[in-house]
């Protein structure tokens, strides 16, 4: 057969992007803007974009019936967040050397409080990674559990009589709205 390509040209032989490339470029542009606003430079954009697409695809796959969302595994979610924490810490140490630890101490802190503040800030630094892993896990589990409960309820309702079937249209519209919300959260 003919080889297919995703390249589309108009009559003047100019490349026309297809829907998928427009979507990916829009995502890239949005993430690029966020990275520039938050970090100030684009050096980490490939990693952040790849991480975003990995989490997005992982969560969207979970919305397909009879598939598994890997982010509903707490080991994956926390492992991912702590792997990133370790990478960011190594990067911070390689760029800032020993000065990296000064980020844990607010300026103007009395010398007597420095050991206590370093301990508190270190715990906060580690808790942030743990918290992000738990939040990703909890959001995915809660959404999928809610959909499973509602779909089971609707199945039982739809298998009833005609009057119950008509009354089920109201909860079914709510189910569709929640499914749309779950897709948006993914």
Keywords:
6 helices; two-stranded antiparallel ribbon; 69% helix; 186 residues
Query: Mean of residue pLDDT?
Result: 85
In N-to-C order, the SSE pattern is: EEHHHHHH
Number of helices: 6
Shape: flat
Instruction: Briefly note the structural class of the backbone.
Output: mainly alpha
Q: Could you list the spans in which at least 5 consecutive residues all have pLDDT below 50? A: none
Q: N- to C-terminal separation?
A: 37 Å
Describe the structure.
This protein is mainly α and 186 residues long. It has 2 domains: 17-63; 64-185, no CATH class. Helices cover 69% and strands 2% of the residues. It has 6 helices and 2 strands. The chain has helices spanning 19-38, 45-61, 74-96, 114-158, 162-167, 169-185; strands at 8-9, 15-16. The protein has a two-stranded antiparallel ribbon with strand order 1-2. Strand 1 (8-9) and strand 2 form a beta hairpin. Helix 3 (74-96) runs antiparallel to helix 4 (114-158) and helix 4 (114-158) runs antiparallel to helix 6. The model has no long low-confidence stretch (mean pLDDT 85).
Could you provide a short overview of the structure?
It is a multi-pass membrane protein. InterPro entries: ATP_synth_F0_asu (IPR000568), ATP_synth_F0_asu_AS (IPR023011), ATP_synth_F0_asu_bact/mt (IPR045083), F0_ATP_A_sf (IPR035908). By secondary structure, the protein is mainly α.
């Amino acid at each position: 057969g003919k080889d297919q390509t995703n390249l589309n040209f108009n009559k003047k032989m100019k490349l026309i992007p297809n829907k998928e490339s427009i979507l990916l470029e829009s995502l890239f542009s949005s993430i690029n803007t966020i990275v520039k606003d938050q970090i100030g430079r684009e050096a980490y954009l490939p990693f952040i974009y790849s991480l975003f697409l990995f989490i997005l695809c992982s969560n969207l796959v979970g919305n397909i019936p009879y598939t598994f969302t890997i982010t509903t595994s707490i080991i994956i979610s926390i492992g991912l967040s702590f792997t990133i924490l370790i990478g960011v810490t190594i990067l911070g140490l390689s760029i800032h050397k020993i000065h990296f630890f000064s980020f844990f101490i607010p300026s103007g802190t009395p010398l007597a409080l420095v050991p206590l503040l370093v301990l508190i800030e270190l715990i906060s630094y580690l808790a942030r990674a743990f918290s992000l892993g738990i939040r990703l896990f909890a959001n995915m589990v809660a959404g999928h559990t809610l959909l499973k409960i509602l779909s089971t309820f609707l199945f039982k309702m739809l298998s009833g009589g005609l009057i119950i079937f008509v009354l089920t249209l109201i909860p079914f519209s709510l189910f569709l709205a929640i499914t749309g919300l779950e897709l948006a959260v993914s």
